[in-house]
Amino acid sequence: MAANRIRNMFPVTPRKGETFELRTGLNSQFAHERKEAIRSTIAAMTLGKDVSALFPDLLKNMATSDLDQKKLVYLYLMNYAKTHPDLCILAVNTFVQDSEDPNPLIRALAIRTMGCIRVDKIVEYLEEPLRKTLKDESPYVRKTAAICVAKLFNLNPSLCLENGFLDTLKEMIGDSNPMVVANSVTALAEIQEASPETGALLVTPNILKKLLMALNECTEWGRVTILTTLAEYKTTDVKEAEHICERVVPQFQHVNPSVVLAAVKAVFIHMRIIGHDLAKQYTRKMAPPLVTLVSSAPEVQYVALRNINLLLQKQPEILAKEMRVFFCKYNDPPYVKLEKLEIMIRIANEKNYEQLLMELKEYALEVDMDFVRRAVRAIGQCAIKIESACEKCVNVLLELINTKVNYVVQEAIVVIKDIFRRYDGYEGIIPTLCKCLDELDEPNARGSLIWIVGEYAEKISNAGEILETFIDGFKDEYTQVQLQLLTATVKLFLKKPETAQGLVQKVLQCATTECDNPDLRDRAYVYWRLLSSDPQIAKNIVLSDKPPITSTMQSLSPGLLEQLLGEISTLASVYHKPPETFIGQGRFGADAVQKRAIEEQQQSARESTAQAAGVKGANAENLLDIDFDGAAPASASPPTALDTMSGGTPARVASPLSPTSGSNNLDDLLGVFDSGPAPAGNNLVTGFEGLNFGGSLPQQQKRSNEDILSLF
Amino acid sequence: MLSGILLFNQKGENLIFRQFRNDCRGHRLSDVFRIQVISNAQVRSPILTLGSTTFSHVKHENIYIVGVTKSNANAALVFEFLYRLIALGKSYFGKFDEEAVKNNFVLIYELLDEILDFGYPQNTETDTLKMYITTEGVKSERAIEDSSRITMQATGALSWRRADVKYRRNEAFVDVIEDVNLLMSAQGTVLRADVNGQIVMRAYLSGVPECKFGLNDRLLLDGDGLTRPSGNKGGQKATRAAAGSVTLEDCQFHQCVKLGKFDTDRIINFVPPDGEFELMRYRATENVNLPFRVHAIVNEIGKTKVEYQVAIRANYGAKLFATNVIIRIPTPLNTANISTRTSQGKAKYEPSENYIVWKIARFTGQSEYVLSADATLTSMTNQKAWSRPPLNLSFSLLMFTSSGLLVRYLKVFEKSNYSSVKWVRYMTRAGSYEIRF
C-alpha cells in the first residue's frame, strides 16, 4: 500500500493542489499520516518540484522520537534552509537538544545535519554542540563531529580558528579509534587544501607514527585518506622512508582498488630516496597488484590503466613480463581497449614483440574503426621502438595493405612514412604503396605518400607521373597536402632537374598566384628564390640529411610526469593533465594554465633540450645556421628534439601547453617552414625537411626572426 | 571529494539526487548529464569533465549511478564507491534497478546520508549498516542501548563483527570459486590463460573466533621445506606442480585479514564477519589447467556460405562433469539461415545476437562432442569483411580448480574452545573464455 502511494508520486505532471494536500497531511493529528506526507514531500523534492512553501509545516514535525522521520525532515531542511533563513532559527532548538540526546545516532545525526545547513544564524549556534560532540564518549559521534569541523571551516573559517577546533582536530589524530583518526585526517587535509596558510595538516614524526598505527585498523576509505597523506609527506630521512614503505606495502593486498592505488602512490614516492636494492624489491612487489587491478570493473580498470601508463613512463621495466595481461578482450569497452594498446607498446621489448605483433594484427582486422587505426599505428610505434622488430612489422603492414580495407591502408601508409624516417633500406616496398594511390582520401595519408615520393624521387622511376596526377588537382587539395606536394616537387626537381622542370614551374606558379593561403604562397616564394639563386645552396637546404626519429609515442614532459606521479589515482592522473586545467573557475583556471605553460617553456629553454614548447624557436635558430654558414649544418640536435616533434606534437595539441604556441611571435614567419595549422600533428614534421633542429634560447628568437627577414 | 550522487533511469529522469556540498546545483547538473551522456551515443569514457564539474558514471541494470565532483578527486575511489553503492543496493533490495530505487527512495537517501559525509565515504559494510538502517525503521526509545552498541561497532576496530553472536552448531563453509580466463589464437596456441579466484566464506561461529587459514601456497610450502635441491628452473616448476602447490601471483583480502601478518610470513589470520563474505581474491597464471579444449574450423565459401566444424573436448577427470556448458559461435551479420547438427546437446541460432548457441546441460569428463553447421548468407550491397569475433564459452564445473588450489586447513580458535565443523567446496567457472578462429 505504502509502496504504491510512493510510486504514484512519480508521474511528472504536477497535480492540482498537491502542495495543499501535503500540507494537510503534514498537519494531520495522526502520526502515520504525517510521516507519509513527509515521504511524499521528499519524493516531490527529488523530482525537482519546489516544495519550499511547506517549510514551516515540516519544521513542526522535526521534534519527534521517530528516527526515520527525523532523518527525512533533516534532509528537507538541508535542501531548503537557504530559502527560509529566518525560519531556520526555529529549528536550532531541536538541533541543540538532539545533539545532547542519549542516543549516539541522534547526536551524530544532529551535528551532521547542522553542518550542512548553510545559514549564518545556524552557524553561530553550531559552536557549542560541536565543541561537546568533539569530546563525545561515542567514537561514532566524534568521527561525525570531526568532519563537521571541515564543514564549519568551509562556511566560516575565522569562527573555526577562533574556537580552536583545528587544534582539537590535531589532537584527535591520536584518538584511540581508527575511524576517528581517519576522519580527523580527512578534515584536516581538506582544510589544508582550502587554505594552506593554516598549516592544518603538518605531519610531524609523531603524527606519522599515529597515522601508521591507524592504517592497519581503520576502514578501507580511511586507509585511502591516510595513504594519500603519507604520500604527500615529504621526508629526507632514508630510514623514515624505508619505514613508511615497509608499513604501506601490506596494503597492496587490500581488496579495494583505490586502497591499492593509494598504497602504490605512497610507496612509489617514498621509494625514490631509499636504497637501490630495497627499491627494486618494492618495484617487484608492486607489479602483481597492478596487474590484478586490470581484472576489476571496467571503469576502475580504466583509472588503473591510465595510472599504469604514467608509472610505465617513469619506470618502463615494472611490468615487462606481463604483456599478456593487457591483451584486449573482445568485450572490453573501447576506452579500455585503447588504453591497453598504449600500455602494450610501452611494455614491448626485444623479447616479447612477436607476441605483441600477432595480437596487433588481430586487432587490425576488427570492426571498430578507431581501435583498428590505433592498432595499425601501434605496429609502427613498435617498429620504431625496437629495431630488430622492424622487418616483421613492415611485413605485417604490407599484409594489412593487401586487405584493401580503406582506413587500414591509409593508416598503414602514414605509419610506413614514419618507419622510413627511422630506418633505411625499405625502399623496396614503395611500389606496393604507390598502388594504393587511388584509395587514399585523407589528407594525412595523401601527404605521407607524397612525402615518400619526394624523399625517394631518385629511386622511383615514375615519381614525376605520380606527382603530376596530384598536381592536376592541386587547388582542391587540403593545405597540408598542398604543402607536401610543393616540397616534394622541389625535391624531385633538385634530384632530376631535366624531367621535372615543367612540373616545378607549374606548382610554383599555381601556389604563388592562384592560392590564397599565405603559408603556402610564402613557402612557394622561398623555394622559388632559393632555386633561382644557387641550386647548390638549395640542395644543401632541401636535401640535407635528417636525423632519424627515435619514437612516435606520446610522452609527457618530465616536469609534468613528475607532477602527475604525485597525483596518482586522482582525476589529474586519468586525464594526464595538471589539476589546474580542469578545476577552478573559468578565467582563473585558464590563467593558471597559461602561467604554468610559460614557466615550463622557460625552463625547457634554459635546459636547452627542445621540449614541446621550445621547438618552434629551435627551428628558427637552426635556420640561422644554414643560411649564414652556407654549409650543411651539423646535426647538433639531441635526439629528443625530433622525438618531441613527431610524437610530442599531438600531445601538445591536447595538453595545456597549447596556449603558448599561439603567443609565439614567430608564428607568421613559421608558416613558411611549418606545415601551417596542421590538424594532425603527426605529419607536421614533414614540413621541416631540409632543416635541423636544436635547442634555442628565447632571446635569440627575435634576432633570427630579423635575420630571416633580411634574407629576402 | 564527492559533491553529489545522482541516480538516473535510462530516459534520463533523475531518480535520486543527494547533494553533499554546496558547489553544485542539482537540476542543472541532471540536465547536463542527460544531454551529454545519456543521449550522447558517442561517449567513450566513463569520466567526463565539463567546465570544472566532473561526472563519473557507472551503468547498472537500467540505471545510471553518477558521482559528481568539483575538485581533483580520487577517481579510483569514486568508482569503487559507486560499485559499493550498487552492492549495497543489491543486498538491501535484491536488485538495484529503477523499480527498486523508486520503491525505496527514502531508504536510499538514508543510506547515502550514512555512507557519505561531506562527500567522504564512511562505513560501507553491509552487515553493519543493516543493523541500524532497516526497511522497518528503528524506534529510538527501544534503541538507546542498542544504538550505543551499534555505533561502537560501526566505528570499532572490528567494525565488521558483533561480539555477541551465538550458534548452537558452529559451522564454516568455504567456497573456492575460480574464473578461468583464456584467449586462444586461431592456430591453437594459448595467448593468455589465467585464473581469477575468489574464496567466499560463510561463517556461523559463536563469539569472536580467530581463524587461521591455509592454502597450498607455493611460497609458504617452500618456506616449510627449504631443503629442496635447486635444479633447473623448468624442472623445479614441474616438481612443484606435482607436489601440488600453487603459485599465487597476487592475493587480496577482506579487511578482516591481518595484512601485516600475511606480508611477513604469509599466514592468513582473521576474525571473520558473521555470515557470508568474500575472504580473499587471488590470481594465478602458472600451470593453469584448462577444463575445455575447443577446436574450430570455419570456412567462408564464396560470399554466400560459411561452414562450421566445432569440436570440444573435456580435459578433466572422467568422474567429474560440468553443467550448463554454453558455446557461443559467432555468425556473420548478414546470416539468413543456419542448419546445425550436434553430437550432444542443442544448438540454436540467435539472430538478434548474431551467434549460434550450443548448450550442453551435462558434460562428462574426457568426452568429446562435435557441432557442424552451415550458414547461408544474404548478399549485401557493401560487402565488408567479417571481423570474426572470438568464439566464447561459459560453464561451471564442481570439485575442480583450474589453478590446482586446495584448502589445507581452517583452524578456529575461540575462548570457549568449542569444536566447529568446516566444509569446503570447489568450483571453476568460465571467466572470459575466448577462442579465435
Automatic annotation (TrEMBL), chain A:
GO biological process: intracellular protein transport; vesicle-mediated transport
Highest taxon listed in the record's lineage: Eukaryota
Keywords annotated in UniProt: Membrane, Protein transport, Transport
GO molecular function: clathrin binding
Chief location bin: membrane
Biased composition (Low complexity): 631-641
UniProt GO cellular component terms: endomembrane system; membrane coat
Clathrin/coatomer adaptor adaptin-like N-terminal domain ranges (all copies): 16-534
Subcellular locations according to the entry: Endomembrane system
Disordered: annotated segments: 630-660
Pfam families in alphabetical order: Adaptin_N
Function: Adaptins are components of the adaptor complexes which link clathrin to receptors in coated vesicles. Clathrin-associated protein complexes are believed to interact with the cytoplasmic tails of membrane proteins, leading to their selection and concentration.
Family, as annotated: Belongs to the adaptor complexes large subunit family.
PANTHER family: ADAPTOR COMPLEX SUBUNIT BETA FAMILY MEMBER
Protein name as it appears in the record: AP complex subunit beta
Taxonomic source organism: Terfezia boudieri ATCC MYA-4762
TrEMBL record, chain B:
Keywords: Coated pit, Endocytosis, Membrane, Protein transport, Transport
Record's signal peptide: none
InterPro entries for the chain: Adaptor_comp_med_subunit, AP2_Mu_C_sf, AP2_Mu_N, Clathrin_mu, Longin-like_dom_sf, MHD, Mu2_C
Main location: membrane
Pfam families: Adap_comp_sub
Protein's cellular compartments: Membrane, Coated pit
Record GO cellular component, one term: clathrin adaptor complex
GO biological process terms on file: endocytosis; intracellular protein transport
Keyword Hydrolase: no
Lineage top rank: taxon: Eukaryota
Domain (MHD): residue spans on this chain: 169-436
Record-linked Gene3D superfamilies: 3.30.450.60, Mu homology domain, subdomain B (2.60.40.1170)
PANTHER family registered for this protein in UniProt: AP COMPLEX SUBUNIT MU
Protein family membership: Belongs to the adaptor complexes medium subunit family.
Full protein name: Clathrin adaptor, mu subunit
Organism of this sequence: Terfezia boudieri ATCC MYA-4762
